[in-house]
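>> received
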Amino acid sequence: MKTRSRKPKKRSGPLSEDVQIRRVDLNLFRVFDAVMQHRSVSKAAKALSVTPSAISHSLSRLREAIDDELFVPDVSGMQPTRRAFELASDIRKGLQSFHSALITKPFVPSRGIRTFRIAASDYVSILVLPRLIKQLAEIAPNIDLRIFPLSRLDAVQQLEGDRLDLLIGWFGKLPNTVQRSLLYQEQEAMVVRPGHPLTKARITKQKLFQFPHVVVEMTGTEEHEKDGFLNDEGVSRRVWIERALLELQDKNVNITGRAAVCVPYFAAVAPMLEVTDMVATLPRRLALCLAERGSIVLLKLPYKPITVEVEMVWHQRVIRDPGFHWIRELLSSSTAEFAANADPKT
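>> returned
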């Protein structure tokens, strides 16, 4: 069949997004996509179960709205213009997104069978994940978790490569492809063994640096900036919170701290403190938990403690996944009481 070609109007400038949306019936993009695939009005009509005249009418309206011919008839069919080629990929993706949104079924936790892959430090695994697991056992018994170490330098790349679903930890700068949400705030605490000399007198900088330190550096390296963050390829991650060694060393006085031992696990600290006079910095909630068991004691800090934000981070591709949305909401709710209390007891 023949279609009437018209000469596009001369543009005085690009149409605003608001004007274009108000002028375009979104159903017209289904017609565009069909003609783009089949390069034929009659074949597009058959694919959409409408008449060829309906396709022609829709193309006319879309041409008017976009101000481009879009498809030009020739002996081999409807040939896309340069503008049509520019629009084709985004229109196809948009239609697929609409389709996915409409057919997505609600997630029913009690009947769900699924595995979520989470990267977290041993600190998070000790204090945060048990609360989540308790709720899963009660309301979603067939949901499984696979916990991976957050200490991997490529943890964010693993997330982007769909090998992880969620990260829980301390982050700074992150790529635009991921999203983040605050779970709770954490403070640092300085700890020693019971009976340590620092428990018997007021702490000063000089006394603090008389003793070697155990440092938890989650990546197991010393490749960090002076603020305790590791920066690599658009990702900024906090890898330690040893404020004393980072900031308290006085340039004007001969006071130097010593990191005698660096370990990638928080769980390794208490056993080392129990048999030495070393000092360590731990997340406060973990320190309180260990202090309850009598393995360490908290010192009164000679400075205002820093506060770090513990976040969950995920890739934007799962934002419409109802199961993933549910597990994030459950994780948030399971830490709500925990987050509200600065000195929780597990």
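>> Confidence is low (pLDDT under 50) at residues 1-19, 224-230.
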